[in-house]
Specification:
single chain; 152 residues; alpha+beta; six-stranded mixed beta sheet; 3 helices; 6 strands
């Protein structure tokens, strides 16, 4: 497959992960709101207050996670998946002798066309180590040497 198409597929897979995170957080917030509402109707006294407080904490946690996921999506939205890259920068796909990386946001590991990719941010140790590297450059991470075999 052509490199441009791979990059677009890697971008799309990463974007799908983030959108799924957003949807999961939104659903969890909705469920926590419903739990808080039912807690009001079904209990009384201290138990009622504890239940409401727990539901409120859950809502806050999910709201933070939602905000973080929305921030990741906004970073992804700044990436042009069709742009050709000769060096490791935001939006690059970097292939090394020890793995494939998508320099974007921290979204974890995923498969595209049977190949494993790791979506990492430029602020991560690996992202920082390979920033501005080019094909055939080496970088060190955790006492290992990585050889860049391709950047696009």
């Amino acid at each position: 497959m052509h490199r441009k198409n791979i990059k677009e597929e890697v971008y799309s897979a990463c974007r799908a992960i983030i959108i799924q995170r957003i949807e999961t957080c939104e659903q969890a917030i909705k469920e926590a709101q419903e739990a808080a509402g039912s807690e009001t109707k079904s209990t009384a006294g201290d138990k009622h207050e504890t239940g409401r407080a727990m539901a409120h904490l859950e809502q806050e946690k999910n709201a933070r996670q939602l905000s973080e996921a929305q921030t990741l999506l906004s970073v992804l939205n700044r990436i042009d998946a069709e742009e050709k890259c000769d060096e490791a920068v935001l939006g690059s796909v970097v292939r090394t002798n020890k793995g494939n990386f998508f320099l974007s946001v921290s979204a974890g590991k995923f498969l595209v066309n049977g190949e494993v990719y790791f979506a990492i941010s430029l602020q991560s140790p690996a992202g920082a180590a390979m920033l501005n590297c080019k094909k055939e450059d080496e970088f060190r991470l955790n006492n290992q040497v990585f050889l860049i075999t391709e950047v696009f």
